[in-house]
Amino acid sequence: MKKLISMCLCAACAVAMTSCSDDDDPVIKNPDVPTISTGAFILNQGSWGKIDGSLNLLDYAKESLTMNVFKNVNGRSLGDTPQCGLVYGSKIYLGVYESKTIEIIDRISYKSIKQISLQDRPEGKQPRSMVAKGGKIYISMYDGYLCRLDTASMTIDASVKVGPNPEIIAIHGNNIYVPNSDGMNYPDYGETASVVSIEPFQEVKKIDVPLNPKQFLSNGKDLFILCLGNYGDIPQAVYSVSSDGKCEEISKASLAAIKGNNLYLIDFPWGAAEMNSYVYDISSKKLTDVSYENFEGSPSGLGVDPLTGNIVMTAQYIENDYPVSDRPGMVYLYDANRKLQKRFEGGIGAGCIFFNEE
To answer: To 10 degrees, the CA torsion angle through 42, 184, 99, 228?
Structure first.
């Protein structure tokens, strides 16, 4: 995890926009089928133990980036090393890894509704990734658990033990797929993933995956996994995952996002001189080289808006051939054709990107 954070290789959060019983809008909407997307949230990790994290808002209509929306409203820091977030119904849920908290805030005002402290829990203390479905938020916890948060009571109502150091999760069918990176056991990373059924909430099996699994991605029909290898002779790559759990390599990649029939891939290994980028057509299995207009820096986050197709990327500045982790980076807004719309000065350690959909 320490290497993961220092490299700022947090990919875009795997977010499932689903129904929630706590939506208190005047007209009840079903987040299972969002119809509007107005922008993106950029969650900044900060610098572990030194600079607290923050939440920024990218507004499509204004083409603006508002900094520190949580702190500006609530008058306090978001905490140390926030890792994950999603919009769900009328609320935003944020997981703060090192502070061991979950923040629940109003989607419109950004005012804190509840802070859940995980410090005294015997299991499930370090939020890493979130997805949502059926009035529940499912959270991978880096100390080896998948937890379930009920949105009505705003409490964690169940936990399932998975593998060591679970990373970015995805809902696929009626299951949650959990990559068990064993990232704290460098250099002996994990090679398993847990499959957890939503109902009943339990681990149903483990599958073998390539070394150092980082992120599952699903479009509802197809399943993929990004694995980071050993940062040496076993490279980072993305793989298709068959129904029986078999993994087949598609491309080298360090960041990945999915929208419909397309898988968006960035390949920029640690210490690389240049970025390679691809779009993989899932139906035809065709991998196409693409480019992002006027992109500079070391890519740290990638997100594709499920509704608009807008692409949001974050990057760190590069000095002496390596990314700088203790100064603000950059945020890029692209249209669906990868034409640059706007570039912004962002936060420190930007990686998690999720969209403001309703």
So the answer is: 10
d(CA 238, CA 233): 16
**Distance between CA 140 and CA 106 in Å, rounded?**
22
* pLDDT single digits (tens) 171-210: 999 999 999 999 999 999 999 999 999 999 999 999 999 9
Asked if 314 and 330 count as a contact pair (C-beta separation under 8 A), the reply is yes
User: Quick one: pLDDT at residue 5?
Assistant: 40
Residue 107 has pLDDT above 60, yes or no: yes
Residue 239 to residue 68: CA distance in whole angstroms:
36
Listed residue (138, 103, 142, 137) closest to 125, CA to CA: 142
Helical (H) or strand (E) element with 2? helix 2-7
Half-sphere exposure of 43 (CA within 13 A, CB side): 31
pLDDT at 271: 72
Judging by beta carbons within 10 Å of its beta carbon (0-12, 13-18, 19+), is residue 35 exposed, middle or buried?
exposed
Q: Using a pLDDT cut of 90, give the percent of the chain over it.
A: 83
* Verdict on whether the full-model pTM lies above 0.90: yes
Sheet holding 330-334, edge to edge: 298-304, 311-316, 330-334, 340-345
What are the DSSP calls for 128-167, one per residue?
EEEEEETTEEEEEETTTEEEEEETTTTEEEEEEE-SSSB-
